Each structure stands twice: as structure tokens, then as C-alpha cells.
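Q: Sequence in, structure out?
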Amino acid sequence: MSHSDDSRDSGQAQAPLIEHLIELRSRLMRAVVAILVIFLGLYAFANDIYGFVAEPLMALLPAGSQMIATEVASPFLAPFKLTLVVAVFIAVPYVLHQAWAFVAPGLYDNEKALALPILASSVLLFYAGAAFAYYVVFPLLFQFFTQTGPENVAVMTDINAYLNFVLKLFFAFGVAFEIPIATFLLILSGATTVESLSKKRPYIILGCFVVGMLLTPPDVISQSLLAVPMYLLYEVGLLFGRLVRRKREKDAADEE
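A: Exactly. Output:
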């Protein structure tokens, strides 16, 4: 084979790679533009959004108490940061759609049929985890914090410190609610079995509380509020794993 033939083959091999890189850049740009558009649309309501997120604490503060800003730029940066996070949060389905559109052509039909429901379920579970944190965990947690302090200490939380605190909890609960998907994928891929995971329940329970300790504030209430749902979601993943195994066994029996 001549040198010119080698160069031609090399150029043909590089062409698909360049096309994929161009498409990837295009998908990323669309995702970034979507986030920016949502952010610009929400920025006028930045203070209202912050007020909504702060409501679980504000409703429990003693009469005459309020949140404070200890840094010069906090009144601007805290709502700005929260609005950007909310924009990303809202744009997640579109961002994942762009990722799906990029990888889908390389998947087989059976992989597409499985990947799309898993992707949609992951988004919904993450949203469910954040909603659980806001509507269930925050009221209980802040009620505990505001009522256990010394009587001569005024509760006036810094707005930036509060934002960092709640964003950490939103992320922790959102990720924790992905446990059924992770468990299901482990069983589906053959990395483990339902029986093996069932025997490890004591270790899973201990692991849930360890993760709760690492991802939440250092108090028993918030750790338990994360650990208990994590374990229940683990059981949900096992249930779906059993259902898939039974379906596979039934299909194999039908083929025979």
C-alpha cells in the first residue's frame, strides 16, 4: 500500500471523529444556551426565588428575627447563585435530552428501549429527592434547630450560609433518591444478584447512616431523614430487580 493510500485512510478515519466533536460542541452549546435563557428569564424573580427557598426557616424564626447578610455582596450574590442553580435544575431534562441525542445513534434498539426509561426515571427521582428535602426535611430540621438553642441567643442566619446549607441538602437528597436506579443497574448488568444484595442488608443499613453522616449536618435528625429513605429506596431497587429477573426467566422458558 502506498503512502498516499495510508494518508487517505487516516483522513477518512479522522473525519467521523471530527464530525462527532463538532456535534458534541453543538450539543453542549445548546445546553449552555438553554441554561442562560432560563437564567435570564428567572433573574427578575431572583429575590422571590430566594424567599421561597428560605420560607421553611423564616416560618419558624422567633418573632422579630430575620435573616442577615454579613458580607457586602451577599444580598446580590446569594440570589444570583440560587437563580443560576435553579436554571440548571430546570434545564436538566433538556441537557439530558442533548446528551441522549448524541449517544443514541450508537446504541442498539434494546439498549435504547432500556436507557430512555432509566434516564427519565433518574431525572424524576432527583426532583423527588429535592422536593422531599424541601417539604419534609427542612420543616423538621429547622424546627429542631430553632428550638434547641439557648434562650439568650437570637437566631439570625446569614443568607449565604443558609443557601450553601440548603443546596448541600438538595444535592444530597437528590443523589440519594437515585439509589433504586443504581441498584437496578447493578442487578441488570450482572455485577451482583438480588440474593447477594439481600444478604448484605445489615451492611447497607450501616452504609446509609454513614452516608447520611457525611452528607448532612452533624445531627441525628438530618442523618436519619436521609438514611431511612435511602434504605427504603434500596429495597425498591431490589423489588424492580426481582421483577426483571422473573421476566427474563419467563422469556427464557417461553423460548424453550
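The chain has nine helices and no strands.
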